[in-house]
Records
---
Amino acid sequence: MTSQAYLDTIKAKTGLGPEDFRVAAAAKGLLGTDVKTADIVAWLKADYGLGTGHSMALVSALGQVAGQRLPVEEKINAQFSGAKAHWRGTYERLLAAARELGEVNLAPTNSYISLLKGTGKFAIVQVTAGRLDLGLKLPRVEGADVLEASGSWNSMVTHRVRLADPADLTPEVLAWLRRAYEIA
């Protein structure tokens, strides 16, 4: 469904268009720089009964959510700030290995970084102070040693590798990354 189709469905259901929602969001204090996309989605679900896809179409139409329109490098820098800074070198090594395979585009969100081959996602990187998680899209691949099913962690990928130490970025992990890139 296109964004416009979502907006048309929302208008039919609620009688409101994007500008009406902008006014309502402003009245609720949901247009400030400290507002997260999840806050707006939760409001739209609770007050208007909209689903996630419809809510995200409105968030996009509002186009003002802090962090949503930041340049890619700023979003990436934010992921490696503070206690997570020590993972930056590991991420850079991982990204360099992926780029040896071919073109890699980056699509960071506020919580993880998607690695794309063209427009196809083949991996994600999510960082916490204690761990770097690498999600891989490996359909029809059984887990092995470091490779576990992603489960409920992230539905955009099939497998997860938990790196608790920068030294955990081993040739085996890079081989799985290569395989995900080739499949994409």
---
Amino acid sequence: MRAVVYSQTGPSSVLSLVERDVAEPGPGEVRVRVVRSGVNPTDWKSRAGMSQGHDEVVPGQDGAGVVDAVGVGVEDLAAGDRVWLVLAQHGRAYGTSAELTVQPAERVIRLPDEADFDLGASLGVPAVTAHRALTAAEGGPTRLGPGALEGRTVLVAGGAGAVGNAAIQLARWSGATVITTVSSDEKAVLARAAGAQHVVNYRTSDAAAEILTIAPDGVDIVVEVAPAQNNELDLAVAKNRGTIAIYANNGGDSFSVEIRATFSRNLRYQFLLLYTLGADLIAAAAEDVNAAIVAGALRVGEDAGVPLHHFPLEETAAAHQAVEDGAIGKVLIDIG
């Protein structure tokens, strides 16, 4: 089979296309013929040197395809099933940038008939992360769905990003009022296409004043991608007993917290990382994500605020570079 690999960390040029033997699924494992592989920032960051731990790595946490074979003990999936993948390369050497990948069955999720493989390969990291951010609030729902966030206001920082877009769509499906911040008119168009009712360009306005005009009592949940840059804004607009859910460190690795301004309003910081989330939360997220797909509430493409950028497998290095350079939308690798 064809696979893209790297044996040392570094720039995208360390990736190369090779031929490798096809592995057989062991007990509790599933072999998937990959049709699309999704590229996320975590993929290029790992390749660039954030982590390695293997002599050779096939990158790719997300993907979608068709079950090719199952190992002993796998009962819920069978050859021919359409599926999407989550955490495919976490703790393993072989992810989704290959024609075939063998995965633990719990990382292989049945793909609803309503979804194509482009959507399936766009789900794992963005949608599961967004789900956790939206279900992390004190007294909030642990599951999403119609009415789950009714009466709540959600602020999504960076609504044109992949996680931000998924958070907007899942929050709207669950009944929330959604405000998002963006840095350009182009990104504002994408955030509105995703479903945000209110879009604030933080470069051209007083973002805190504008958000508080929309939500005078403050917002219930902040889905935060850049806490080092945005903590002052988050503190200004979060309501009493609000939650600031932080899933990335864009723009800085640390920030200070003004203690009195934070504890006086009983604010909660919820840090989250997909890799250590736990099987129970990932399974719950996958179930809700599939329900959102069936309802037509979770989509990709220009009309959903997620422009798609396709690369063939042999141009995986260019796909990684596109994400590293800040491509707006979703980068996908076409394999099958």
---
Amino acid sequence: MAKILIVDDERAINDLIAVNLKMVGHEYIQLYSGDQISHVLQESKIDLVILDVMLPGKDGFEVIKEVLKRNVPVIYLTARDSLADKVHGLEIGAEDYIAKPFEAVELIARIHVALRRNQRDNNEFTLDHTVVDLDKHTVTVQGQIVEMTNKEFQLLELLIQNKNIALSREKIVERIWGYDFYGDTRTVDVHIQKLRKKLDWDNQIKTVYKYGYRLEVQV
């Protein structure tokens, strides 16, 4: 997975991002101002920077110049959510601009999009005897191809990208079927059961009581 630099002076937010990155298998480095960014970029191979705009000293709009010199993608994460700030952030080179407060699921999804766009993420996932190639949309179990519908694969990809994070049924419906879906959350249960059967993942895909599901993986 990727090594991600978190730069945010709000320690609670910084720690929350770090916890979620660790849960899905990414490495991370935490900074609380922009002063040490150049040093970290020189000493470590960083795949992505999550950068607050309002930092002590130089703000995120200034700091990004040093990051982009090293061809490292940036996602802004900030309370400054005006349209003018978003447009400015994207125009000066950021991959994405996420306003606080944010949902962990959305942040992780946008991180993976940015990593893929810059080809800095490993898009093959292995668990026990199952190998999932997220780029080729193929699944094998003990070397044998497993046929999946588009929705089944999308659900599997969502679970993988958010491994060890509990996803509510409502969030799964929103991400896979969209806001205008007229069915109910039992659709999620049916698709989860199909994945468990096809992949023999009864113990890996955990039911979170009265909430949803979590793909449990040792990282």
---
Amino acid sequence: MLTTRATLDKHHSDVASMFDGVAQRYDLMNSIMTMGAVDHWRELVVEAVEPQPGQTILDLAAGTGTSSATFAAHGAQVYPTDISMGMLQVGHQRQPDLHFVGGDATRLPYADDVFDAVTISYGLRNVEDTSAALSEMLRVTRPGGRIVVCEFSTPTWAPFRHLYRDYLLSAIPAMARLASSNQDAYDYLAESILAWPDQAALADLMARAGWQAVAWRNICGGVVSLHRAWKA
């Protein structure tokens, strides 16, 4: 379990253990914390990835496979991959037709140039080394392939940022006390959002990793950002 306050320094075994502990109610908590908006955000990710029949898609930090199932429904061959075995076990129970893979985003168990698209939602900030993960995602993507990163970000309107910070640090832990047996995990998740780089800083990290034409779209005033880029 992560026992210290969230920063950008984290260890993959701690993160895996944390998500193991919240796996059963993770999807429920996502819906509660976002007041149902996560379903709409998932649709925007699918639009950005543009899954097509015959394409091969890597869904990182796939958790229980909710997003992966959507890609598969469009005819794509999807590989839901996650570091948390607890999440993968719950995912296999709920989505038995998907092929779940255990893997660390900084050391992916895939060959070079094999995926038409790679995507990660609400998971990049929990990776031990963000730059290494972005480089690994580039390695396994085919030339001309795309990356889509959906992540909590920085609200663009300054007055709202203060309200949003209060929501993260008070409302989310309160919700966790009611709906989850692991409040510490949600304390960490809230704090990790505040410690995460803003939209421009993430775009810079992606470009430094070798991704081309990096752009982003703010959702809900920047509460979430959708970054997209290409492999040359």
